[in-house]
Amino acid sequence: RFGQLSSGSDMAPDWTMKEVSTGTTIMAVEYDGGVVIGADSRTTTGAYIANRVTDKLTPIHDRIFCCRSGSAADTQAIADVVTYQLGFHSIELDEAPLVQTAANLFKASCYRYREELMAGIIVAGWDKRRGGQVYTVPVGGMLVRQPVSVGGSGSTYIYGYMDSNYKPNMTKDQCLRLVSGALSLAMERDGSSGGVVRLAAISETGVDRQVILGNQLPKWSTA
Amino acid sequence: MERNLIDSQIKGVSTGTTILAVTFNGGVIIGSDSRASIGGYYVSSKTINKLIQVHDRIFCCIAGSLADAQAVTKAAKFQISFHSIQMESPPLVKAAASVLKELCYNNKEELQAGFITAGWDRKKGPQVYTVALGGMLLSQPFTIGGSGSTYIYGYADAKYKPDMSKEECLQFATNALALAMGRDNVSGGVAHLVVITEEGVEHIVIPGDKLPKFHDE
């Protein structure tokens, strides 16, 4: 199950035989009034970068997004299912859905099919009841709400940076700086993360998306 | 569960530790945690010292199999002191690192240990060398190693500056160790730090409850 589509010959490059993966760095932070989410833009098949400008921040509803990591196929399929389920639920309810509902829908799919899936998803958004919220659904199908969450292969390198730089009650701009700083550090160290940094800030008023190109990323003294 | 096993096989067995060495203006700080574990399930020692003095102003710290590391450092300590007596002068840090590298490279099939060598010598001042698992030798202004180091690459890249003062460097090393120990379950215990300068060697031990705390603790 783990990545071999066929036992190809030695002459063929490995990317013809490897599954497409969003080896990735994703991150989401709550602030008072909304959330900031971010992701790198690299999708790999083995050593080949299949897409260097991927958008891993996928809208699920007007004020709810998910950040995808793991198998590209699995996460796209799950996101499509949840988008349908949430859209239907929201029409039934005749009001905007809760972020917690979206997160639970992700959890339901990821847990039920945990043996077949390879998906690590962060669900983040804004709703009227609880404001900005971040829920993480890692591989295996657990669900937990966290004020700040990182995911994907590049996330291991930035736990220390996140722990030392996150403080409760940050402003939206501080969150944007935290996420873009953390993502660029991870992209420097993780071979499966790279490209550009995609950010989105979600609040009551709407979704504000931006892209930070390679030459505009924060620089660090050793890099 | 098999996915986790495959992961650790691919990454190599650099286990159960966080170690680092950082140069500053006038010296170098070498540091480590103090936990020895068996397979990540049992802590066999809470207070092991992973900072081995191989000469007056040269220390090395070990990551990987403790048995291998102890055997190698014992042999290296002997070779370095013999070399120093022959040369009638204190050994260069590079020489000490080279001795470790020779041992690691020539026995690469049997050994599973990586080293960080740090120290001060008259020729080049404070230096840090890494000897990786297969026997590669690399000189760097600072370096981190062990399983806990993956969690602090981002922090170290962001926070390191060349030519720090001793106090800034101590703060950097302490924070880095505390952050790694907070996330890596096979690193923990107390933080051992050794400050090496031309004047001498200072050993600092920071118990777990005195380590810096971060937002969710």
UniProtKB/TrEMBL annotation, chain A:
GO terms for molecular function: threonine-type endopeptidase activity. The active site is at T24. Its main location: cytoplasm. It is found in: Cytoplasm; Nucleus. The keyword Cytoplasm applies. It comes from the Eukaryota. Keywords: Cytoplasm, Hydrolase, Immunity, Nucleus, Protease, Proteasome, Threonine protease, Zymogen. One of its GO terms (biological process) is immune system process. It catalyses: Cleavage of peptide bonds with very broad specificity. PROSITE patterns: PROTEASOME_BETA_1, PROTEASOME_BETA_2. InterPro entries: Ntn_hydrolases_N (IPR029055), Pept_T1A_subB (IPR000243), Proteasome_bsu_CS (IPR016050), Proteasome_sua/b (IPR001353), Proteasome_suB-type (IPR023333). GO terms for cellular component: cytoplasm; nucleus; proteasome core complex. CDD domains: proteasome_beta_type_6. Belongs to the peptidase T1B family. Component of the proteasome complex. PANTHER family: METALLOPROTEASE TLDD, PROTEASOME SUBUNIT BETA. The proteasome is a multicatalytic proteinase complex which is characterized by its ability to cleave peptides with Arg, Phe, Tyr, Leu, and Glu adjacent to the leaving group at neutral or slightly basic pH. The proteasome has an ATP-dependent proteolytic activity. This subunit is involved in antigen processing to generate class I binding peptides. Component of the proteasome, a multicatalytic proteinase complex which is characterized by its ability to cleave peptides with Arg, Phe, Tyr, Leu, and Glu adjacent to the leaving group at neutral or slightly basic pH. The proteasome has an ATP-dependent proteolytic activity. This is Proteasome subunit beta. It comes from Oncorhynchus mykiss (Rainbow trout). The lineage of its organism: Eukaryota, Metazoa, Chordata, Craniata, Vertebrata.
TrEMBL record, chain B:
GO terms for molecular function: threonine-type endopeptidase activity. SUPFAM superfamilies: N-terminal nucleophile aminohydrolases (Ntn hydrolases) (SSF56235). One of its GO terms (cellular component) is cytoplasm. This is Proteasome subunit beta. GO terms for biological process: immune system process; proteolysis involved in protein catabolic process. Transmembrane segments: none annotated. The active site is at T17 (nucleophile). Component of the proteasome, a multicatalytic proteinase complex which is characterized by its ability to cleave peptides with Arg, Phe, Tyr, Leu, and Glu adjacent to the leaving group at neutral or slightly basic pH. The proteasome has an ATP-dependent proteolytic activity. CDD domains: proteasome_beta_type_6. It is found in: Cytoplasm; Nucleus. Keywords: Cytoplasm, Hydrolase, Immunity, Nucleus, Protease, Proteasome, Threonine protease, Zymogen. The keyword Protease applies. It comes from the Eukaryota. It catalyses: Cleavage of peptide bonds with very broad specificity. Component of the proteasome complex. The 26S proteasome consists of a 20S proteasome core and two 19S regulatory subunits. The 20S proteasome core is composed of 28 subunits that are arranged in four stacked rings, resulting in a barrel-shaped structure. The two end rings are each formed by seven alpha subunits, and the two central rings are each formed by seven beta subunits. The catalytic chamber with the active sites is on the inside of the barrel. Belongs to the peptidase T1B family. PROSITE patterns: PROTEASOME_BETA_1 (PS00854), PROTEASOME_BETA_2 (PS51476).
